[in-house]
# Entry
Amino acid sequence: MRSSLFFSLVFCICCSCNLSIEESIEGVYVTNYKDSFLAEMPQGRDTLILFSDFTFKSSFYGNGTFTTKDNSLKLSLSNSSSVQFPIELSRKGGVKLMINYDSNHHYNKISD
# Structure
Protein backbone atom coordinates (compact mmCIF):
# COMPACT_ATOMS: atom_id res chain seq x y z
CA MET A 1 0.00 0.00 0.00
CA ARG A 2 2.75 2.46 0.95
CA SER A 3 4.81 1.69 -2.14
CA SER A 4 1.85 2.15 -4.50
CA LEU A 5 1.08 5.51 -2.86
CA PHE A 6 4.74 6.53 -3.23
CA PHE A 7 4.85 5.57 -6.93
CA SER A 8 1.56 7.37 -7.56
CA LEU A 9 2.99 10.52 -5.98
CA VAL A 10 6.20 10.28 -8.04
CA PHE A 11 4.17 9.75 -11.22
CA CYS A 12 2.02 12.85 -10.52
CA ILE A 13 5.12 14.97 -9.87
CA CYS A 14 6.76 13.80 -13.12
CA CYS A 15 3.61 14.51 -15.11
CA SER A 16 3.27 18.00 -13.64
CA CYS A 17 6.92 18.79 -14.51
CA ASN A 18 6.35 17.79 -18.14
CA LEU A 19 3.18 19.86 -18.29
CA SER A 20 4.96 22.93 -16.96
CA ILE A 21 7.64 22.64 -19.65
CA GLU A 22 5.05 22.14 -22.39
CA GLU A 23 2.99 25.08 -21.12
CA SER A 24 5.92 27.45 -20.66
CA ILE A 25 8.01 26.65 -23.74
CA GLU A 26 6.14 28.75 -26.33
CA GLY A 27 7.24 32.36 -26.59
CA VAL A 28 10.00 34.66 -27.82
CA TYR A 29 13.67 33.91 -27.07
CA VAL A 30 16.85 35.87 -27.80
CA THR A 31 20.47 34.75 -27.60
CA ASN A 32 22.71 36.22 -24.92
CA TYR A 33 25.92 35.95 -26.91
CA LYS A 34 27.14 38.13 -29.77
CA ASP A 35 29.81 36.03 -31.48
CA SER A 36 30.24 32.29 -31.73
CA PHE A 37 33.25 30.26 -32.79
CA LEU A 38 31.13 27.34 -34.06
CA ALA A 39 29.32 27.51 -37.39
CA GLU A 40 26.24 25.62 -36.16
CA MET A 41 25.57 28.25 -33.47
CA PRO A 42 23.85 31.57 -34.08
CA GLN A 43 26.36 34.23 -35.07
CA GLY A 44 25.43 37.45 -33.28
CA ARG A 45 21.97 38.04 -31.87
CA ASP A 46 19.17 35.71 -32.91
CA THR A 47 15.47 35.71 -32.10
CA LEU A 48 13.67 32.36 -31.87
CA ILE A 49 9.87 32.33 -31.71
CA LEU A 50 8.13 29.13 -30.60
CA PHE A 51 4.42 29.06 -31.48
CA SER A 52 1.63 27.10 -29.77
CA ASP A 53 1.11 24.93 -32.90
CA PHE A 54 4.67 23.55 -32.46
CA THR A 55 6.18 25.61 -35.27
CA PHE A 56 9.08 28.02 -34.92
CA LYS A 57 10.66 30.98 -36.69
CA SER A 58 14.29 32.06 -36.38
CA SER A 59 16.56 34.31 -38.41
CA PHE A 60 19.41 31.77 -37.95
CA TYR A 61 17.57 28.42 -38.17
CA GLY A 62 14.72 29.50 -40.46
CA ASN A 63 11.22 28.04 -40.07
CA GLY A 64 10.20 24.55 -39.01
CA THR A 65 8.60 22.48 -36.29
CA PHE A 66 9.68 21.60 -32.76
CA THR A 67 9.10 18.92 -30.15
CA THR A 68 9.96 18.63 -26.47
CA LYS A 69 11.11 15.46 -24.75
CA ASP A 70 13.12 14.69 -21.61
CA ASN A 71 13.72 18.38 -20.78
CA SER A 72 15.06 19.20 -24.23
CA LEU A 73 13.78 21.06 -27.27
CA LYS A 74 14.32 19.64 -30.76
CA LEU A 75 14.02 21.95 -33.78
CA SER A 76 13.32 20.15 -37.05
CA LEU A 77 14.78 22.33 -39.78
CA SER A 78 13.58 22.74 -43.36
CA ASN A 79 16.70 21.01 -44.75
CA SER A 80 15.72 17.76 -42.95
CA SER A 81 18.32 18.22 -40.21
CA SER A 82 17.63 19.02 -36.59
CA VAL A 83 19.19 20.72 -33.58
CA GLN A 84 18.52 20.01 -29.90
CA PHE A 85 18.78 22.25 -26.83
CA PRO A 86 18.52 21.27 -23.15
CA ILE A 87 15.77 23.24 -21.39
CA GLU A 88 16.47 24.89 -18.04
CA LEU A 89 13.61 26.17 -15.90
CA SER A 90 14.47 28.61 -13.12
CA ARG A 91 12.65 28.82 -9.80
CA LYS A 92 11.34 32.22 -10.83
CA GLY A 93 9.69 30.75 -13.94
CA GLY A 94 12.35 31.76 -16.47
CA VAL A 95 13.23 29.47 -19.35
CA LYS A 96 16.64 29.02 -21.01
CA LEU A 97 17.46 26.95 -24.07
CA MET A 98 21.13 26.01 -23.68
CA ILE A 99 23.15 26.20 -26.91
CA ASN A 100 26.60 25.65 -25.36
CA TYR A 101 27.25 25.11 -21.64
CA ASP A 102 30.99 25.89 -21.82
CA SER A 103 30.46 29.43 -23.11
CA ASN A 104 27.06 29.87 -21.37
CA HIS A 105 25.57 30.54 -24.82
CA HIS A 106 21.80 30.24 -24.61
CA TYR A 107 18.42 31.55 -25.69
CA ASN A 108 16.66 33.48 -22.94
CA LYS A 109 12.88 33.70 -22.94
CA ILE A 110 11.79 37.35 -23.04
CA SER A 111 8.01 37.05 -23.57
CA ASP A 112 5.14 34.59 -23.96
Remarks:
- The chain has a mean pLDDT of 79.
- Residues 2-25 form the longest helix (24 residues).
